[in-house]
Amino acid sequence: MEKRNIGKSGLSAPFLGMGTWAIGGGSWWGDNDDALSVKAILTAVEQGITWVDTAPIYGLYHSEEVVGEALKHLDRDKIILSTKCGLEWRHESPVLHKVVDGVQVYRDLSEKSILEDVEESLKRLGTDHIDVLYTHWQSPDFSIFPLEETVSALMKLKAQGKIRAIGASNMTADLIRGYCQYGELDVIQEKYSLLTRRVEKQLLPTCKELGVSIQAYSPLEQGLLTGKVTMDTTYPEGSTRNSNPCFQPARRAQALKLLAGWQDLCEKYHCTPAQLVIALTARMIPGLHVLCGARTPEQVLDNAKALTLQLDGADAVRMKWDVDAIS
Question: Which of 131, 221, 242, 314 has its CA 20 to 30 A from that of 79?
Answer without folding.
Answer: 221
